[in-house]
Design goal:
The complex is a heterodimer of chains A (274) and B (257). Chain A is an alpha+beta fold and 274 residues long. Helices cover 54% and strands 15% of the residues of chain A. In chain A, the strands form 3 sheets. Chain A has a 4-stranded antiparallel β-sheet. Chain A has a two-stranded antiparallel sheet with strand order 1-8. In chain A, helix 1 packs antiparallel against helix 2 and helix 6 packs antiparallel against helix 9. Chain B has 257 residues and is of the alpha+beta class. Chain B is globular and about 80 Å long. Chain B has a single domain, classed as Oxidoreductase, molybdopterin-binding domain (Sulfite Oxidase, Chain A, domain 2, Alpha-Beta Complex), CATH 3.90.420. The chains are: A alpha+beta (274), B alpha+beta (257). At the A-B interface, helix 1, helix 2, helix 7, helix 9 and helix 10 of A face helix 1, helix 2, helix 3 and strand 4 of B.
Amino acid sequence: MTDGPASHTWLYRHTAATRLSHWITVLCLLVLVPSGLQIFNAHPALYWGERSDPEHAVFALRAIESGDDEIRGVTELWGHRLDTTGLLGASTEDGERVGRGFPAWMTLPGSQWLAMGRRWHLFFAWIFVLNALTFGVYALLSRHLTRDLLPDGRDLAGLGASLRDHLRFRFPAGEPRYNVLQKAAYVTVIVVLGPLVVLTGLAMSPWADATLPLLPALLGGRQSARTVHFALTWALVGFTVMHVFMVAATGVINNLRAILTGWARVHHPGGSDG
Amino acid sequence: MAEPSPLDRRRFVLRGLALAAAPLLAGCDRLSGTPWVARLLHAGEAVTHRVQRTLTRRGALAREFPESARSAVFPGNGTIDPGTDAYQAMATAGFADWRLEVRGLVERPARLSLTELRRLPARTQVTRHDCVEGWSAIAKWTGVRMSTLLDAAGVRPEARYVVLRCADLMASSGEAYYESIDLVDAYHEQTILAYEMNDQPLPVAQGAPLRLRVERQLGYKMAKYVMAVELVDRFDHIARGRGGYWEDRGYEWYAGI
């Protein structure tokens, strides 16, 4: 501890296993989300329960022919309707206005092609699952989960202060440990959202349902599972947007270096509060 | 340590973003059209098939629902009326001249009328129909178990699949619909050839006079307008060789997910 307030040190923050698993997840989400939207587009409506009774859709993206031969896109949520022409329900594909749930630029493949969307989705679902299982076992055995990710008593005691700081856009940067909100976000994604998105996906499989009838039953039915799967997708997208924003807001070079090489520049553990 | 220059920083970030976004760009569509990519992605089907079959009980039953859970309206998907002259004539005659052929690798090929099928032991089940598009509907189905027909016909040991030959020619291609299932599914307790839906003779939109129910797979496996049950040891010589009309167009042969 020789330097003054600008005392820094190098910390090996992310092990190779964590970094590899992180980037495989990035690749998986980049394929799973747009191919999932492609699959959704084959029947762009969501329901609650076992059945998809058309009059009981909780969410729907519809294309409606308007009087002047133009197709309008309409988004319906619990009976509320919103004109979303150009984005949802009807959008431009190859220079032409067509009726489709999510626009071509959000789906994989771009054109309406359910069979290929399913191939992308189900292939990368396996990679996602195998990667998650591997990381889960690693995080438990290496104590990464308990040591670095699960908030401890001290974290929880500082929850209010951390929340206040974040809301004032005062983000801790270069800290050796994750802060409590960061831990909560990571643990929620790893322990709750990740497993749930896989289970709700599996609950849509008629073969899995025959073997594990509890799976769709716990979720309230196959169509509920589909709805929850869709909602979880956007929760994961929301997390990703926030995550990327925080990466940018707390020292993008240092953060990217850490997740690529493992090494992060942090305040000296014994140094000033920064 | 000196701060990296803003230019370095920008280049670094952009490069990272470009790297991350690459699969989302037009390249992905090109990949979808590349045969080896399509084949690689198709490997997912083999994995799913093997894992689901290994981890589950062969005889596990799809959930059966109370009659009150039935859908008020059951969507008619795909062909809702074959419309050919031959089919029209059969339908007009109430399918009196229609015969189900049991043929291929069997000891005793047969031709069965609807009346004969109705005389065989029947199974009734209220089950959920899951379409590959994403919707689900529940209905009550009554029909003869596939295993009853197979046992009566005497399946030869080299037979591996049951091919369903259908009366409907698909609108876009003019090709006849067909499907295939393996013997695990064919002998499953809930695999029936249904001639009744919701206590009524099977409507034309649902495949009159006979459709397959294979309850642990997606709807496109459940061939409508069935004309023949054909036992084969392989299906690569049929149509485009993938085992079904939609399989020939890129959908999975194993539709358990």
